[in-house]
Amino acid sequence: MTLLGRRASLLLLLLACFAFAKRAQAADPRLVVVNDARGPSGELIREAIVKALMSHAEVRVVSLAHVKKSADKLGANLGDPRGAVALGTSLGLAAIVDAEVKGQGKDWSVALRVRATSDGDIAESHQFRATSAAELAQRVGEKAWKQIGGSLADAKVPGGSSKRVVVLGLTGPKAAVVRGYVVKAVNRQKGVKVMSERDTKGQLPPKDAGAKDLAAAAEVLRASAFVGGEVKITGQAASLDVKLYNGGDGELMTEATLKGAGLQGLNRTIQNELGKKLAGPLGEAQLPPLPEEQLGGAAPAEGSGEGDAEPAEDGEAEAESPAEPRSRPGALPSALEVGLGMRAFARNYRYTDDLFGTLRAYKLGAAPAAMLWLRWYPGAHFTSGIPAHVGLAAGYEQGFGLKSEDSSGESYDTSMTEWYAGLRGRVPFDVHEAGVQVTYGKHSFRVDDDPTNPLVPNTGYEYLRVGIDGRVRVSRVSISAELGHRFVLDAGEVASRTWFPHATASGFDAGVRAGFELVSGLEVMAGFDFRRYAFDMNPKPGDANVAGGALDQYYGGWGGVSYRLDGSGE
After folding, report:
1. Which of 27, 35, 342, 402 has its CA 20 to 30 A from that of 122?
2. Rounded to the nearest 5 degrees, what angle is found at the Cα of 120, between the Cα atoms of 118 and 123?
């Protein structure tokens, strides 16, 4: 593959990663509800939480008023583990977000908790602090998703993601018996669960129900579909006219007639054919949408009579209202990213068009190296605007325990180092990021062999690198790719009088990595990278060594950890 082809392939991979992330985010959002925030300025803080969550496609914030009505019917409490499980089962909720606010004067805080409805336990808890209620609301709006978004996106609904189906009472002779056949057949379908008579008691629609009645019952039962029908028996012939209704709107989705010789024959037909008839429509059946949270008007300003205003200074009434987040809710940029890891790398150095056949190639198998890197955005300590996305980048890599051998088996100490430093800019796309980086660096590889008869020339590539990169996040998982061109300013001994005095070189690098966030900001990572330098020796008459060119390639895999710190130091 040509150099251009490799670069194009990596760019396509990067674009595919972005497309995958957007698609993954848009699919199957988790239903969550934000409970009333207890304490002073609770409504202000709750509204900030809701705004932060509503800006992300991974979740859908359900109306608290609607959930409270359902809780009253079930006799459930949102703050109780058993109540959370009951609401999760009934409404399809994945998580409940609770907040408790404390504050007076210049000391304000909120404890933010995520309660999973799968088991009712607290899945995650975070605390934010500020000097006023307005500042606290702003901070929560900016940071809530970063802290709890992963838990919300990963939350599971009690009982899994199976679609709930109600098998209605059938009409006609032997209706109860045939209904049992239908329940058994539908329950065998993957991803489907037939609701029991106990779960539906007193909540089924009337026998002559229309679409509106079915949709209303589906909303109460949280059912995706209804199955009904009529049994007919004439002599030894039995048949079932079966119908499937969509829970979302109560409309008929499909109907079919199944026949058999007597009840046993009809049962065999139902078990063999009903699933096939209903599979496609069942896959498209939808739950009635739960009403989404509706935010009211502007949040009350501090000191508006809620009893939580700070004392006015110098006799002036305080009129501060909560400021809008300086960037998109939940997208406060990180100020510092640091990482360290271990790398196993290999090197392959070879010549092309070696005129006399006297030049030695060089190969190094898997060798260890330690690596660290840093990205710092000073502006992110003070703002979330454009200055927060311009910063510094640096890195260092050191090989250790390296040895090289000649053809006689004699070994020589070997060293490899690389460092770089420069400027970096980034463009955030929600939780994703694209970056541009310009750095100066040096990549050296030395073999301490006999200077009068060296194995290969020592390299010391001084370069100016211009690179692009991108990172996508889906819940706790991140995928990154990078590509850079290295303008080689000095190639070391290769371009010296001793070796190839007229040589020129250029290089490029590429890499991919994946990470998993263990806790907020702390990520384990693994990746693969490739660095390549290409020489044009430009030989002249009288040169001691003659070759058309050379390739110096480094490739390897690595693993490590990284830590991300946002601008507030949390």
Report:
1. 27
2. 85
pLDDT at 333 over 80: no
What DSSP string runs through 233-294? EETTEEEEEEEEEETTT--EEEEEEEEEEHHHHHHHHIIIIIHHHHHHHHHH--PPPPPBP-
Please count the other Cβ atoms lying within 10 Å of the Cβ belonging to residue 208: 6
The torsion angles phi and psi of 67, rounded to 5 degrees, stand at -65, -40
**Is there a common fold for 163-284 and 333-566?**
no
Q: What is the CATH number of domain 17-154?
A: 3.40.50.10070
By C-alpha distance, which of 416, 481, 404, 412 is closest to 442?
416
CA neighbor of 69 nearest in space, from 85, 48, 55, 90 = 90
Q: Which tokens in the block code for residue 181?
A: 């056949």
Distances (CA, A) of 129 to 138, 303, 311, 322, 385: 11, 19, 19, 15, 22
Least confident range of 160-164, 223-227, 544-548: 160-164
Say if CB 54 and CB 69 are below 8 A apart. Answer: no
Q: Answer whether CATH 3.20.20.150 is correct for domain 333-566.
A: no
What's residue 98's pLDDT? Answer: 92
For residue 527, the Cα-to-chain-centroid distance in whole angstroms is 17
Q: How many helices (H) and strands (E) does the chain have?
A: 10, 21
- Would you mind telling me the total number of residues written for the chain in this entry? 570
pLDDT in tens, 139-173: 998 888 888 888 888 888 776 667 889 999 999 99
Rounded to the nearest 10 degrees, the angle between the axes of helix 175-187 and helix 262-269 is: 20
State both tokens at 300.
């009350």
The structural domains of the chain, with segments of one domain joined by +, span: 17-154, 163-284, 333-566
Is the CA virtual torsion 554, 556, 560, 564 positive or negative?
A: positive
Structure tokens that stand for 471 in this block: 């990172």
pTM of the model: 0.49
- Architecture of the 163-284 domain: 3-Layer(aba) Sandwich (3.40)
| 323 burial type by CB count under 10 A (0-12 exposed, 13-18 middle, 19+ buried) | exposed
For the purposes of burial, counting CB atoms within 10 Å of the CB of 235, is it exposed (0-12), middle (13-18) or buried (19 or more)?
Answer: exposed
